[in-house]
Design a protein that fits this description.
This is DNA-binding protein. By secondary structure, the chain is mostly beta strands. The protein has 1 helix and 8 strands. Strands 6-5-4-7-8 form a 5-stranded antiparallel beta sheet. It has a 3-stranded antiparallel beta sheet with strand order 2-1-3, with no helix packed on it.
């Protein structure tokens, strides 16, 4: 079996891709996963080598429910010719981790703390795949 070769620009000094690269590679395949510590059970995001809760290196990848709650929202004002306004949110996932993202499918000013959202994979500001959120519908 041939070894997998990685673009040297994609790797740092190590031989294996770091957790950020693993996360990005999963996203590129349409998979949103976060880490979970095998020692203490804490969910971890951003991707890390060591669990920030207990210091274990036993971090595996799991699929989160994708459900979360808006913690904070900012609208960045931008001229239409530069792409128009966009929002930046902090989302608390059910797993207890907080991530920075964006909410689509709702007016920027209607996004408020406490709004229930669900994750999907959309296009990030750089054109690459990114985790984005949409308001959760049909809760009733
Ligand atoms: Zn841990």
């Amino acid at each position: 079996m041939a070894a997998i070769t990685l673009d040297s620009e994609m790797t740092d000094m190590k031989n294996s891709p770091g957790p950020d690269a693993v996360f990005a590679a999963k996203l590129a395949e349409g998979v949103f996963e976060i880490q979970k510590c095998g020692a203490c059970g804490a969910h971890v995001f951003h991707p890390r080598v060591i669990c920030p809760t207990c210091g274990s290196a036993d971090l595996g990848w799991v699929a989160p429910t994708g459900r979360g709650t808006i913690y904070a929202r900012t609208v960045v004002r931008r001229k239409p010719e530069r792409g128009g306004d966009y929002n930046v949110v902090l989302v608390d996932l059910e797993e207890g981790v907080r991530m920075m993202s964006r909410v689509d499918g709702i007016a920027h000013d209607e996004i408020a703390a406490g709004l229930k959202v669900s994750a999907s994979i959309g296009e990030g500001a750089d054109g690459g795949p990114a985790v984005v959120f949409r308001p959760e519908r049909g809760a009733s």
